[in-house]
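Researcher: Let's do a round of design. I'm pasting the structure tokens now; please hold your answer until I've finished.
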């Protein structure tokens, strides 16, 4: 039996994955369905990394496949949603944490949902968030962190944003790892997203898209 899109992508079969994506597009499959499969595959990749079945190079390969899928479906999403961007979002993994698979999925989902997303990458210092907020002027800031040590970094980042007089200009969401409402209260965020879909829903709610 032929593998489905989730299996192909989770197994890092790049050429076969992209071939199937193109076939689905040609058949008129809803791009949202393709994105859902890609999201599920990335979750599988993440679990394989956590269980030491996959390593950093495998995560990088999965991220590359995700970007290539995005390149295929973005034009379709833009046709459905129109060319105008709904709003601006800054996202990054906070200082001391280098995990990015969850952040990358959220960035991907926000991008194809019509938002202008600035991804600051991993291990991002609080002062970088502050500088980029001033420069990019987003409505929403997303702080990502997988490790528990990220909680203090999130708290420090939000404190720096407040000190810079920017806190009332942005909504801040957090996500990743062991994050729950108690962590949200501790760090001072407006909300937490349990997954990429929740992150997009929060952004839409706050920006009014």
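Researcher: That's everything. Go ahead.
Model: Designed sequence:
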């Amino acid at each position: 039996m032929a593998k489905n899109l989730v299996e192909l992508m989770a197994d890092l079969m790049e050429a076969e994955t992209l071939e199937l994506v193109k076939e689905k597009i040609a058949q008129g499959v809803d791009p949202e369905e393709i994105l859902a499969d890609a999201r599920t595959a990335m979750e599988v990749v993440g679990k394989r990394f956590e269980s030491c079945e996959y390593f950093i190079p495998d995560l990088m390969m999965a991220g590359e496949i995700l970007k290539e899928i995005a390149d295929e479906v973005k034009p379709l999403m833009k046709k459905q949603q129109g060319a105008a961007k709904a709003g601006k979002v800054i996202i990054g993994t906070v200082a001391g944490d280098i995990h990015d698979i969850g952040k990358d999925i959220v960035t991907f989902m926000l991008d194809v949902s019509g938002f202008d997303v600035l991804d600051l990458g991993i291990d991002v210092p609080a002062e970088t968030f502050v500088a980029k907020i001033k420069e990019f002027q987003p409505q929403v800031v997303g702080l990502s962190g997988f490790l528990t040590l990220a909680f203090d970094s999130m708290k420090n980042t939000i404190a720096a944003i407040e000190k810079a007089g920017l806190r009332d200009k942005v909504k801040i969401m957090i996500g990743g790892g062991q994050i729950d409402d108690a962590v949200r209260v501790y760090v001072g965020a407006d909300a937490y997203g349990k997954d990429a879909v929740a992150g997009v829903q929060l952004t839409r709610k706050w920006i009014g898209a």
